[in-house]
Amino acid sequence: MTDPTRDLRGALAKRQPKHHAAILDPKGVGELLRSIDGYEGQGNSITRIALQLSPYVFVRPCELRRAEWSEIDTEGAVWRIPASKMKGRQEHVIPLSRQAIALFEKARALTGDGTYVFPSLWTPLKTMSENTVNSALRRLGFTKDEMTGHGFRAMASTLLNESGKWSSDAIERALAHKDKDAVRAAYHRGTHWNERVEMAQWWADYLDTLRTGAEVVPISSARRG
Questions:
Q1: Can you tell me the distance from the alpha carbon of 183 to that of 203, in angstroms, rounded to the nearest whole number?
Q2: Which residue of the set 39, 48, 56, 60 is catalytic?
């Protein structure tokens, strides 16, 4: 019996992973953060906060713009994104640094009486446009080949790994990368929480150091187990 798919083998191109441009060098990150702080544009206050929060929490752009106030617990310093909103269909709990909490509180003063943290500029019943953050980056002068809203994830992943301070499992959990092994995934969600809390604050402080343009001296090159 002949294989009807034989002649098609190799004819279909494999799906290539999409590249999201990102700034990965510390000096460039500092310049980006300073530019964001000076952002002025349409809906500038809430858009600026969305930009400022992006590097601290490094969630996917769709998760950021769809954030609801019911998910944000500033007293408990956590943001709980329900499974229905996550790519991997698992709840993602994000420890919030002091800097991230301050930004959420600033946003609350603007949009706290509505459902969404970052509502549409035109109606509070809808979320911010998916193009808002990228458009703001273009307004700041960063091309699509230099930086994207999704690029904040690559930025965090690269610099956190290069710091040598944090386990790869903790970083992967912070990025909400789904573990194919369900048992291992459940184990690591719990065991790396304390490390993720510490890492979130270290990362926020590190970003603030880069923003000032200060020279960054690695504290330790030893990787955690």
A1: 28
A2: 60
Closest CA to 140 of 34, 215, 64, 59: 34
| Three-state secondary structure string covering 150-163 | CHHHHHHHHHHHHH
- Domain positions in the chain: 23-212
| Residue 196 is among the residues annotated as catalytic for this protein | no
Q: Is 184 a catalytic residue?
A: no
34 is a catalytic site residue: no
Q: How far is Cα 80 from Cα 26, in angstroms, rounded to an integer? A: 29
Catalytic residue from among 20, 138, 177, 189: 177
- The model's pTM is 0.83
150 catalytic residue (yes or no): yes
pLDDT, tens digit, for every residue of 149-203? 999 999 999 999 999 999 999 999 999 876 555 544 455 456 689 999 999 999 9
Catalytic residue among 34, 80, 98, 187: 187
Contact 42, 219 (CB under 8 A): no
177 is catalytic: yes
Interatomic CA distance for residues 10 and 150, integer angstroms: 31
Q: Is 87 a catalytic residue?
A: yes
| CATH fold label, 23-212 | hpI Integrase; Chain A (1.10.443)
